[in-house]
Design goal:
The chain has 384 residues and is α/β, with parallel strands linked by helices. It has helices at 33-51, 71-84, 106-113, 127-133, 139-151, 170-183, 200-206, 215-231, 251-257, 285-293, 307-318, 327-334, 340-348, 363-366, 369-377, and strands spanning 8-14, 16-17, 29-30, 56-63, 92-97, 117-123, 157-163, 187-192, 235-238, 241-243, 262-265, 270-272, 277-281, 299-304, 325-326, 352-355, 358-361. The protein binds iron/sulfur cluster.
């Protein structure tokens, strides 16, 4: 399993969708032609401003729904990137899409624009579940979009699935996993539905019109995915992510987990220098557009992480993915040592393994990464 850190990832947040899903708390609004036109110009300006001379290793167009911008725009975007940044090491260029948000034939154009990986937000193959989530597509459209992507030459396709949907039982989840495996994507993400305050689905749950599956059922579905997908030849390399072999692990997302630097473009996008500094853009579209149109930086806030925050973050991220985390690296970077008693307990109970200086999580411990991370550095002296 690779751990690369010698490049910068580029993330582009396109904050437009055809229609807002009932559970979505990401910053996105419904498509508006005037705003989309302005957004195209500001995104190119921000690209030039932030990536000049930078060694970019991965590109990820997400959102929102980045395929609401036409392939010609992405061609121009990627050729501008080639002009301003060092793209000689680019390994992976991903664009997200949703079934129902792409016209037949258009996927070939995104491929031609330069994207070599497609991530499709399928979420479920069951009509009732898609309806509960407020998705705009049907199960058939999901399969058609996947097959079109394959036919147009995408050899690296990821699909997103969701469990913990109101009304879902483990049998439904198993049938979704079965359909996913039949399509044979290179990558499958399985996210538990998180109910965020203020979303329509949260209101329906609060009113008693819907109910979320119990924690026990959600945990059962997590382990079911682990078992089913491993059996089908996928490796469970991160708490929510499965790949058909190491070569299909999402390199861009791995940047977040191993603290590789990344640059974010678009409203609400975050950037990180790979060490201590994190910043994020203004969230709301009008504010973002007008800052760039006035030749001002769209960065809203910058924070500098202290050593304890870095140690905690390294542990939380490291305990969530198969490559684990190097204890010596944490000590050298932050001065924090591990709580050996707690680590011993974790090892003795079989929750993690230790190999050399690395802590390696198990399927079970990936679920408890946040709590374990806090306990592992709790109350320890700060050396730097
Ligand atoms: S398609 Fe994705 S980003 Fe857009 S509303 Fe639905 S969940 Fe949110």
């Amino acid at each position: 399993m690779f751990i690369e850190k010698n490049y910068t990832g580029l993330y582009i947040h396109v904050p437009f969708c055809v229609k807002k899903c009932s559970y979505c708390s990401f910053y996105s609004i419904e498509c508006d032609e005037v705003l989309l036109t302005r957004f195209r110009s500001t995104l190119l300006a921000e690209l030039e401003r932030k990536t000049a001379g930078i060694n970019i290793g991965t590109v990820y167009a997400g959102g929102g729904t980045p395929t609401v911008l036409p392939p010609e725009f992405w061609s121009e975007f990627l050729s501008t990137l080639d002009d301003v940044a060092d793209t000689s090491d680019v390994l992976e260029m991903t664009i997200e899409t949703n079934p129902g948000a792409v016209l037949p034939g258009v996927l070939a154009e995104f491929r031609k624009a330069g994207f070599n990986r497609l991530s499709i937000g399928i979420q479920s193959f069951i009509s009732g579940e898609l309806k509960t989530l407020g998705r705009i597509h049907s199960p058939d459209q999901a399969i058609i979009t996947f097959n079109q992507a394959r036919d147009t030459g995408f050899q690296n396709i990821g699909i997103d699935l969701m469990y913990g949907i109101p009304g879902q039982i483990p049998d439904n989840w198993q049938s979704n996993l079965k359909k996913a495996v039949e399509l044979s994507p290179e990558h499958i993400s399985c996210y538990e539905l998180s109910i965020e305050k203020g979303t329509p689905i949260a209101d329906l749950i609060n009113n008693g019109e819907l109910s979320k599956p119990s924690e026990e059922h959600c945990r059962e579905m997590y382990f079911l995915a682990d078992e089913y997908l491993k059996e089908a030849g996928y490796i469970h390399y991160e708490v929510s992510n499965y790949a058909k072999g190491d070569e299909n692990i999402s390199r861009h997302n791995s940047s977040y987990w191993n603290r590789t630097p990344y640059i974010g473009l678009g409203p609400s996008a975050h950037s990180f220098d790979g060490k201590r500094i994190r910043s994020w853009n203004v969230c709301e579209i009008e504010g973002y557009l007008s800052m760039i149109e006035r030749d001002r930086s769209p960065v809203e806030e910058t924070e500098e992480l202290d050593s304890q925050e870095i140690a905690l973050e390294m542990l939380m991220l490291g305990l969530r993915w198969k490559a684990g985390i190097d204890i010596e690296e944490i000590e050298i970077t932050t001065g924090f040592r591990m709580n050996e008693q707690y680590l011993d307990r974790m090892v003795r109970s079989g929750r993690v393994k230790v190999s050399g200086s690395r802590i390696l999580p198990t399927t079970e411990s990936m679920l408890f990464a946040d709590g374990d991370a806090a306990n592992l550095i709790e109350d320890l002296p700060k050396d730097v």
